[in-house]
Amino acid sequence: KNEVEQSPQNLTAQEGEFITINCSYSVGISALHWLQQHPGGGIVSLFMLSSGKKKHGRLIATINIQEKHSSLHITASHPRDSAVYICAVRPGAQKLVFGQGTRLTINP
Amino acid sequence: NAGVTQTPKFQVLKTGQSMTLQCAQDMNHNSMYWYRQDPGMGLRLIYYSASEGTTDKGEVPNGYNVSRLNKREFSLRLESAAPSQTSVYFCASSMDRANEQFFGPGTRLTVL
User: Fold this and answer.
1) Which residues, numbered 80 to 99 in chain B, qualify as contacts with chain A under a Cβ-Cβ cut-off of 8 Å?
2) Which of A21, A15, A35 is nearest to A77 (CA)?
């Protein structure tokens, strides 16, 4: 079993829909990251969080440390949000462990 | 700022050939990383450098070597390329190990 599990693996939605991507992990962590990988391959860090909730524009990330679960929400989704979203956790002090990613497609 | 740059963007090698992937960052970051990304798998850490002058193995170091040339540059060398090393390679950097990482554009390597 992977240390980091994302669901769903693939998600297709219509423009304007509210999107939720989930991440569950099995180890104690010091931080959790959400990353976005564009269709062209570039990877951008969206959030780093260790408790509670963070918001950037239409993106919201939450984490429940007790339940070892995080969610990434996108409000008013747009075709430009189409990308692979990657969850990564930091067990302890050092290296990130990555999930396999969720491929999101937003149709106009 | 250029952020994290990688060269080359694409490379095709024959089995047994050697090559070095270059990475540089202009953000004055202390920590740098090399990852590989394969279809159906998450990013996997090959090597990292927590600070200038130090390097450590990651999850999949076999077949690779690294050099932290200075604070800006962190290179990855394949001494004798194998088809199993066909992958997309990403370099990343962070202020220190606990901070968010900034990624380069990636190098797509094919070993025939």
Assistant:
1) 88, 90, 92, 97-99
2) A15
User: A-B interface: how many C-beta pairs under 8 angstroms?
Assistant: 50
Q: Give the integer Cα–Cα distance in Å for B5 and A42.
A: 11
Give me the amino acid identity at B41: M
Rounded CA gap, A31 and B18, in Å?
A: 37
What is the spatial distance between Cα B81 and Cα B38, in angstroms, rounded to a whole number?
16
pLDDT for A22-73, tens place per residue?
Answer: 999 998 899 999 999 998 889 999 999 999 999 999 999 999 999 999 999 9
- What's the rounded Cα separation, in Å, for the pair B78 and B27? 26
Find out whether A38 and A83 touch, Cβ atoms under 8 Å. Answer: yes
